[in-house]
Design a protein that fits this description.
Blueprint: H1 3-25, E1 36-42, H2 47-60, E2 64-68, H3 73-81, E3 87-90, H4 96-104, E4 109-118, E5 120-124, H5 135-142, H6 151-154, E6 164-168, H7 173-182, E7 194-196, H8 199-207, E8 212-216, H9 218-223, E9 228-230, E10 233-234, E11 241-242, H10 246-250, E12 258-266, H11 267-270, H12 273-292, H13 300-312, H14 331-334
Parallel strand pairs: 1-2, 1-3, 6-7, 6-8
Antiparallel strand pairs: 3-12, 4-12, 5-8, 5-9, 10-11
Length: 336
């Protein structure tokens, strides 16, 4: 063997020997000892965020089984109040009656805001006449008393073609929020809409009909921008037509359809190592994962307060006053 070849072979052998020695002396990887199960259900709007949290959490704690459902905000709260799940994803704050259901079962909970969302109004990409909509027009369009069946009923210059409406299921927080922002809590939404708790069904419906219009969370708009077109909404105070975007949702100019999203945790779940680890991980990663799936992160101060509430086990909701009525104002003011 030539001298160079002998030298090269010796170097390889020495190198392998050093690698084997280093491997032998390296500390053994510590197996993750956290075990258990975490059950999550609720809002289809919050589902992409919940799914992302579960996926990342499972990488860190592979022995914890995390299941995430999407039965709607109302459906999730029903299961939450019955003690069937550990965490409820919600696209609106918990209501007075839902709090009472939890109290009846002695279920204490901690409220955790996780992101901002912008309820997005969407039309088919073949719709070239709707450039913007006022809140009044949206209300007429979806109200049971609006007397709107064709586009021409909303604007004389628009086509006299029948409108097809798509909306989240009536058990969803998205539907509740939309109804309150348009016809009010006691108003009636028209009954001839195509509804589904699964937002992807709504996407396909609007995509397949030139005369369709619908609404759902901002994350689904981001995921389907090439399939649908978002409609700017005229801000009632400023008169400006505003598109949903991270900036307009956070600064409140996308009104009245900007809203916070929540996750509610039972204290019983937080008393288990797996449940507490899941909640802490979720709040640590909330801002990053919210943006990753198409939502808007909350101010850092709100996440800090949520973490403090979690640590202190501050139970109940900060969204309702002592009489059980909704409090209003910037989320940074409500979470002090």
């Amino acid at each position: 063997m030539p001298p160079r070849a002998i030298a090269a072979a010796a170097a390889v052998i020495l190198g392998l020997g050093a690698a084997w020695t280093a491997a032998a002396n390296a500390p053994a990887a510590t197996p993750d000892k956290l075990r258990g199960a975490v059950k999550v259900d609720g809002s289809s709007t919050v589902y992409p965020f919940g799914e992302a949290v579960a996926e990342e959490f499972s990488k860190k704690h592979p022995n914890v089984k995390v299941t995430v459902g999407q039965s709607g905000t109302g459906g999730g709260f029903k299961r939450f109040g019955a003690g069937e799940i550990d965490f409820a994803n919600a696209s609106r704050p918990i209501t007075k009656s839902e709090v009472a259901a939890c109290e009846a079962k002695s279920i204490a909970f901690v409220e955790l805001p996780v992101a901002f969302d912008g309820l997005s109004i969407v039309v088919n990409r073949g719709n070239d006449w709707v450039k913007q909509l006022t809140v009044e027009q949206i209300t007429r369009l979806f109200s049971a008393d609006g007397k709107v069946s064709t586009w021409k009923d909303l604007d004389p210059s628009w086509p006299a073609e029948a409108i097809k409406l798509y909306a989240p299921g009536t058990d969803s927080g998205t539907f509740d929020y939309f109804r309150e922002a348009t016809v009010g809590k006691t108003g009636k939404i028209r009954s001839d809409m195509s509804v589904s708790e699964t937002d992807n069904v709504l996407v396909r419906g609007v995509e397949g009909d030139r005369n369709a219009i619908g609404f759902f969370g901002y994350a689904y708009l981001v995921a389907n921008e090439k399939r649908l077109r978002a409609v700017p909404v005229v801000n009632p105070k400023t008169g400006a037509a505003v598109m949903p975007s991270p900036a307009s949702i956070e600064d409140g100019s996308y009104a009245p359809f900007g809203r916070p999203l929540f996750v509610y945790a039972t204290v019983a779940a937080l008393d288990r190592p797996a449940g507490l680890a899941y909640a802490e991980f979720m709040l640590e990663q909330a801002g990053e994962l919210a943006q990753e799936v198409g939502y808007v992160k909350l101010p850092d101060a709100v996440y800090e307060r949520a973490r403090a509430n979690l640590k202190a086990r501050r139970t109940g909701t900060q969204w309702l006053d002592a009489e059980g009525k909704d409090r209003h104002g910037p989320i940074s003011d409500l979470y002090r």
